Amino acid sequence: HEDIVPFLDFIVEANGQPCDKEDDTFVAVIQECLEEGKELELKLFNVKCKQFRKITCRPNLDWGGEGALGLTIKFDFINDLQDTCIHVLDVVPNSPADKAGLEQFHDFILGTPHYGLKDTSELQELVSENMETLIEVFVYSQETDVVRRVEITPSLSWFDANGKPIQSKGCLGCRFGHGYLHRLPSKTLHSPGKGRIEDYLKIDSNPPTNGGTKTHTQEKVRHDSDDVGSGVMHEVATPLGNGEIHGEMGSIKSVVVKLDWGLDHNATAMALLKKDHVTFLEPPNGQELKSDAAESKTTVLSPEETHKSEITA
User: Fold this and answer.
1) In terms of Cα–Cα distance, which of 49, 38, 35, 41 is closest to 12?
2) Strands of 241-249's sheet in order across
3) Is residue 106 packed enough to be buried (19+ CB in 10 Å), middle (13-18) or exposed (0-12)?
C-alpha cells in the first residue's frame, strides 16, 4: 500500500470488480482475499497526473497496524484537484504552522485523515472548532512531490524557541490562498506523487470536531450464538473506544462493533475487530474476550446514511 498516494489516488477496480457504487463490493473483495489468502489487484486513478495504474498487495490483519491494508478509504466523486487544494502563502516564525513544519509557497493542504477540505472556509471552520487541540492534515509539497501528514495545534498562545510568550498573529500563523491563482504548478502534474509509509502506520480513530464523513458500506454480518450470545448486543471496550457488539465474522475470527462515538450527518461508526482485541464490559454468561489495546486491527468503519463514505481497510 506504500504505492498508494493519499488524497491523490482513487480505487476504481479491485480484482476486476468495479468500485463505482456505494455498496459492499470492496469490503467483500478484501474479505475474500483474507479468507482465501489471495492477492488483491487494485486499479487506481490519480487526480494529479490524471492517469491509471495497477498495484498488487496481499491483505493481512497481522501486519502490525490497523486494518487489512493500512488505508483509510472513502467513497467519493472524482473532482479536479486544482479546484480544492489550499495553498500555504506565508508562515510566521514560531507560530503553530511553523512548528508543524508547513512551508510557505511549497505546501498545499488537501484535507484531514477523515475528509477532504474544499476551500479556505472549511479549513477555517476546522481550525476554529479545534482550538488548543491537535489536528492532523495531509499536505502536498510541490518541492518534494510528496503527500505527508502534518500535526498542528491551533492556538493564540505562542512561545519562542526559549519558551517565552510572544505576540500571536492568528491561531495558525500563516496565510492561505485558494482558487485559480493558487493551483498546482504545471510541472507537478506529470507524476502521481508519493506517500510516506510512516503516515500509513497510524490512523486516528477520533475525528476532529468538524467531523468528516465516513463510509456508507453495509457489512454482511453473521449473528452467531457461539461467542456473541445469539446476536444480542453487549457493551465492549476496544482500542477505538467503547461500543456494542452487533455480530461475528466467524471465518476470520472477528466481531462487528458499533462504536459509541458518532459522525456527521447522523452517521454511525462501525468497526470489524479481532476477537482478542475487544473486552466485554459486562461479560455474557461469564465469557470474556480479552483485549490488546496496544494494537487495533480495524478492518471497516462503516457509517450509514451519508453520501461520502470512508472505510479503514
Assistant:
1) 41
2) 270-274, 254-259, 241-249, 235-238, 279-280
3) middle
Cell of 135: 489536528
Cβ count within 10 A of residue 155: 18
Query: What are 43-76's pLDDT values in tens digits?
Result: 999 999 999 999 999 998 887 777 788 887 778 8
Burial of 171-205, coded b for 16+ CB within 10 Å and e otherwise, reads bbbbbbbbeeebbbeeebeeebbbbeeebbeebeb
Alpha-carbon distance of 83 to 144, in angstroms, equals: 21
Cell 474479505 found at: 31
99: its cell numbers:
512548528
Q: Which three three-digit cell numbers place residue 82?
A: 486544482
35 phi and psi angles, rounded to 5 deg: -70, -35
Cell of 115: 475528509
Chain segment 114-164, per-residue pLDDT in tens: 888 889 999 999 999 999 999 999 999 999 999 999 999 999 999 888 888
Task: Read off the amino acid at residue 199.
Answer: D
Residues 6+ apart with CB under 8 A from 39: 33, 56, 57, 58
Q: Long-range contact list for 284-290, CB < 8 A, 24+ apart? A: 284/228, 284/229, 284/232, 284/234, 285/229, 287/227, 289/227, 289/236, 289/255
Cell of 218: 453495509
Largest CA distance in the chain: 65
